[in-house]
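Quick one, T. Sequence first:
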Amino acid sequence: MSGELTDPTGAHDPALRPRNLDEYIGQRKIVDNLRVYIRAALARGEALDHMLLSGPPGLGKTSLAYIIAEELGVGIRTASGPTIERGGDLAAILTTLEPREVLFIDEIHRLPRAVEEVLYPALEDFEIDVVLGQGPGAQSVKLPLNRFTLVSATTRSGLLTQPLRARFGIHAT
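Structure tokens:
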């Protein structure tokens, strides 16, 4: 017997994950609302409002993030809150996003507060503040970003700060 874990049901096989809202089972109210939000964003030719998915593990938050990108016809980039340690890490991700692309941050409740501060202007104004230089000669420059959709997931929504929570236009629990 090997030390390798196997899943005889194949439930963890990415090929078996739902690819679109029609294949997603459960969470009917959330799915119905998402259809409306996505149709509206597509009709306007704009990015979907930023979205916070919260709930216990195993309810399909990650699957929904991928489905949202698929339904919007855009790419998706993924990150985990604890792996984004510095504002520069987040800036590197944000500045390379394509127009209307989805950025999925799992475990957003574990995002460091200093990084959260970098995220605020990106979510509100689609720009980030970059400091060029050091000391008295340092200058702050606003760097424009492509309009994107942040989809975040958390199992601990109570740990999110109110300012961060307020920047999500769509909340699904």
